[in-house]
Amino acid sequence: MRRGDGIDAEDGAPPVILRLIPQILFHDLTPVLLAIAAGWLLGRYLDVPSHPAARLSFYILNPSLVYMSLVRSDISGVELFRFLGFAASVPFVAGGFSLLLSLALSLSAAERTALMLTAMFVNAGSYGLGVVQRAFGDAALARAVLYFMTNNVLLNTLGATLALHGGGGWSWRRLLSIPTLYAALAAALVRWSGWHPPEPIEAGIALLSRGAIPVLLLVLGLELARIRLEDRRRLIGLGALVRLVGIPLIAIPLARLWGLEGPAWQAGILESAMPAAISNVVMAMEFGIYPRTIAGIIFLSTLLSPLTLSIWIAWLRG
C-alpha cells in the first residue's frame, strides 16, 4: 500500500486512525517528550544553561550522527536527488504560501516575516530526528538527517536574508561554518571510494552518534524553558496552525511530485509536520522581528505537536 493512500472512509480507516492515536502518543512520542520534559525541568528549576550542550551537539554529536546515518544508509543516487529536491522545495513553497496568507490578512511587514520564518523552518533536528527514528526506524532516520541538513543550510542562508528583507543577511563564512556539511561530504567520499576509516575510529564516531538525539532533545527542553510569551494570540495561533497543519498538507503533493516512496516518504512528510525551529528566535532577536511572538509560535506549535504528529504518523502508517 502506498504512503497512506489506503486511508479512506469506505474502508472505515478514519476510526482506525482515531484508535491509533493514543497508542502512537504512548509508544512513539512519550519517550521523546520525556526527554524534552527533563530538559525543560532542568532549565526551569535548576537554571541549567543550554549553550554548552547546544555547542557540543552542533560541533560533535550532530556531525557524528550525520556521518554514520549516511554511511550506513541504503540511499541511492536517484533517491538522494529526489529527497534533497523535496527538502529544499518545501521551505520555498511554505514561504510563498505564508506570504500570500499574510497579504490576504493585511499583516504588517514584521508580522509577515515572523509568519514566513516559522512556516519555512522546522525543528527538524532536536525534535524531528527523535520522532522519525522512534516512529519509523533507522532507514527513515537516514532520510530525516538529509532533511535536517537541508533545512539548516536554508535557515542560515535564505532565513537570514529573509530576516533582513533581502539585505544580505548571510555570508559564505556562515554557511561554511556548519559542521554537518563536512560530515556529509566525508560520508559521501567514503561511500564513493569504498574506503572506511580504521574500525576503532569509526566505532568512536558511532558511539558519539548515539548520544546526538538524547542531547538534542534535552537542549530543546532547556530552550523551551527560556521562552517568554507575549499577548499576540491571533498571530501565534495562526503561525502554529500553518506550521502543524497547513505546511504538511502542502508537502504531500510535493512529495508525490518528487516521487518519494517508503522511508523517504515517511521521513519527508513527518519532518515537514514538525513545530517551528528554535533557531527562529535567535534570528528574530538578531534582526528585531517580534522575537517574543516567534517564541510564542514555537512554544504553541511544540505544545500541540504531540497530537498533530500522532495523526500524521497514523496516516503514514495506513
UniProtKB/TrEMBL annotation:
Family statement drawn from the similarity comment of this UniProt entry: Belongs to the auxin efflux carrier (TC 2.A.69) family.
Cellular localisation: Cell membrane
Species the sequence originates in: Thermoflexus hugenholtzii JAD2
Domain of life of the native organism: Bacteria
Chain ranges passing through the membrane: 20-41, 53-71, 83-107, 114-132, 144-164, 201-223, 235-258, 294-315
GO biological process: transmembrane transport
Record has Transmembrane helix as a keyword: yes
Protein name: AEC family transporter
One cellular component term from this protein's GO annotations in UniProt: plasma membrane
PANTHER family, sorted: AUXIN EFFLUX CARRIER FAMILY PROTEIN, SLR1864 PROTEIN
Topology class, membrane: Multi-pass membrane protein
Keyword vocabulary terms for this entry: Cell membrane, Membrane, Transmembrane, Transmembrane helix, Transport
Record-linked InterPro entries: Mem_transp_PIN-like, Na+/solute_symporter_sf
